[in-house]
Design brief:
The longest helix has 26 residues. The chain folds into two domains: about 50 residues; about 90 residues, Glutaredoxin, CATH 3.40.30.10. The N terminus is likely disordered. A four-stranded mixed sheet has the order 2-1-3-4, covered by helices on one side. It has about 140 residues and is α+β, with helices and mostly antiparallel strands. It starts with a helix and ends with a helix. The chain is elongated, with a radius of gyration of 18 Å. It has six helices and four strands, in the order αααβαβαββα.
Length: about 140
């Protein structure tokens, strides 16, 4: 339960802030501005929620899938950045949440000097801790940009 709350916590706080701001703006006589703010905050909330990532699978499932593996955790700004840079290419990799899979957390610690630094990417049997999103995109798509 704590992991679920931690996963959605930032998104819920952002959405709540957006609702409060929209109500204040609406009460101030600007319904159009209120709707715009609410839409913006809803988009930000979705970006900070687990919705911004492909469905997470277990480390064992990722190994079986045979795709590159991206270890991540909710709330990680670098993981979010990776997801946005990858856009549609993100589904070409298996995403493994280290907060819900102890085996995944151990795999990350094994290559990150005992730390749980994410994103950690495994491509072609090589692990990279916090690689540049452009580098990952190039390898997933076979092209840059």
């Amino acid at each position: 339960m704590l992991v679920v709350l931690r996963s959605w916590g930032t998104g819920v706080v952002v959405l709540a802030a957006g609702v409060v701001l929209a109500v204040i703006t609406w009460a101030g006589g600007s319904p159009g501005g209120a709707v715009t703010q609410l839409v913006l905050f809803a988009a930000l909330a979705a970006a900070f929620s687990p919705l911004a990532f492909p469905r997470s699978i277990s480390a064992a499932g990722a190994a079986k899938a045979g795709k590159p593996i991206i270890y991540w955790r909710p709330g990680c700004q670098y993981c979010l950045r990776m997801r946005f840079v990858l856009l549609g290419a993100a589904r070409r990799a298996s995403w493994v949440n280290i907060w819900t899979d102890p085996e995944a957390a151990a795999a990350v610690r094994a290559v990150a000097d005992g730390n749980e630094t994410v994103p950690t990417v495994v491509l072609d049997g090589e692990s990279r801790v916090n690689p540049g999103p452009g580098w990952v995109r190039e390898r997933l798509t076979g092209r840059s940009g």
